[in-house]
C-alpha cells in the first residue's frame, strides 16, 4: 500500500511515543492477530550531502542520511523491496534479526546472496520472532555501509509492555563516521598498499559531526530537546566503521535496560561503551530545570590499536532543556563543559563495564543458555600479515601487507553465494568444510608473538548439525598489537558466559562461567589481550557469517561462516530461495 495517509502515521507515532527524526516510508497491511505485514521500499540512490564545508555524493536509502527508520512490532513480517539505482553492487544486512528459516534475507554479499546489481531489485522478506528492542540495517558489501545505514525499532507486542517504566519519548541515536574521501577509494588503497586505511574526518551523531570540528555549521549539530522531569528512551546504535566508542552526557546518568535487543538487569552508569555493530537501549531521566539550559553529549573512541592510526576526535551534540526552537548559533555551545570520558586505551574500564551486563532473566524473558555443550571450538582472532607481491612496495609491518584471521585462516570471499552453493549441492570449488576447530599452531597468544606472522587464505566453513549446542572461546592475540575485536554472529544470539584477560585456561576458567544470567547478544568484544566465551544452540538452518565488525579487520579477512544443517522436520529446514534472488 503506497502513500499511507499522514493522519494514520501521526496516530501510529503518537501511540509509539516517538520523536520522529526522519519519518519512514511505510505501508501496512493486517495479516493476522499475531502481527502485521509492513511494506517498505528502499531506493538506493546517490544524494549530495554537505558536511564540514564539503559537498559529496553518497550512497543512501531514499536520499536520506542516515537511512529511514524501520518500525515494527515483535511478530511482524517485513517485506522490503530494495531497488539499486547506483553504479555499485548493493546488499543489505538486517543486523541482529534472527532470520529463523529466512537466511535468504540475511544480506551479506557472497554469503547468503549475490549482491543486487545496478538496475536490479530484491525483496527481503522476513518475520521478527521473539525479539524486541533496537537493531539496525546496513549495506554488507565493501565499505558502502559508511553512509548506507539506519535504525530498526522493534516495539513489544501490542498486548505486552516494557519491563521498565514507559518512557515519555523514544529517540534513536546513531553513531557514525564521516569521510571527506570516497570510502571505496580508502579501502581499495589500503588493500593495494597493505597499509592501515586513512582515517575518517569526523564521528557523527545521527549524521551530524557537531561543533568541535573545523568548518562545522550550527545546522550540523544534533540537538536532543527535552522537557524537565521526564524519562527518555535512547536507542543507541554504533554504526561507525572502525571505532568502538565511549558516550556520555555532561552531569547526567543513564539506566541501561537492553543490549542488542535483549533485556538486561537495569544498571546505572554515566558512560556508555558500545562497539561497532552493537545496540543498546538506555533510559535518561531529565533534571527538574525550568530555564533554557544546554549540556554537551559527546563520544570518542576506545582503542589499543597498534595497526596504524585512528580517528582520535570527539563528536558532540547538545541536550537542550525547555528549547524555544531558536536555531543554534556559533556561540550557542561556547562555555559548555564537555563530559569527561575514559582514556582512549581504558581496557580495564571496558572490562568492568561489560561485566555489568546480565540478562533480565525473569519468567517472561527466561535465560536459555545451554547447560551442556556438544560442540567445542577455540578460535584465535587477531591480525597477521601477507607477503608483499613481487615488484611492489608495501606499507604494512616490515614491508608486508596487513591481514587478519581466525585460527590463522584469512577468509577469502567466494564469487558465488555460499548459501546458494550449499543449498543446491554445488560446494565444490566454492568452499570447504574443514575449518579448524582449534589453532593448528599453538603459541603464547597474548605474550611475545611468533616470528612468523603470515596467515593462510581459504574459504572454509564450520558445519553444525541442527539443534546442537555450541561453546565458542575466542582468544585475542598480540600479533601486531592486541586489540578489542567486536565479533558479530549472523542468524543467532549467543550468551556471553565468560571473559578474562591473558590466555584462556581450559582447566580453570570454565568454573567461573556465568550459566545463570549471562547477557544475550549478537556482537561481543573479544577483549584486548584476553578472551571471551559464548554459547548458543544451532537451531537456525542456513549459512551464517561471523566476523569482526571493525570494517578494516573484516576486509583483511577476520571472518568465517557457519553452515547449520537442516533438521528432520519440515519446520526445521531452510525453504527454497525466492525467485528474485540476485544472480552473480
What does this structure look like?
By secondary structure, the chain is mainly beta. The protein has 5 helices and 33 strands. It has a 6-stranded mixed β-sheet, with no helix packed on it. The N terminus is likely disordered.
What is the helical fraction, as a range of percent?
A: under 10%
Structural class: mainly beta
Count of alpha/pi helices? 5
- Main sheet properties: 6 strands, mixed
The end-to-end distance, rounded to whole angstroms, is 31 Å
Which blocks of ≥5 consecutive residues have pLDDT under 50? 1-33
Strand adjacency order, main sheet: 11-10-13-18-15-16
Question: What spatial form do the alpha-carbon principal axes imply?
Answer: globular
SS strand fraction: 35-45%
Rounded Rg: 23 Å
What is the β-strand count? 33
Give the averaged pLDDT, no decimals: 93
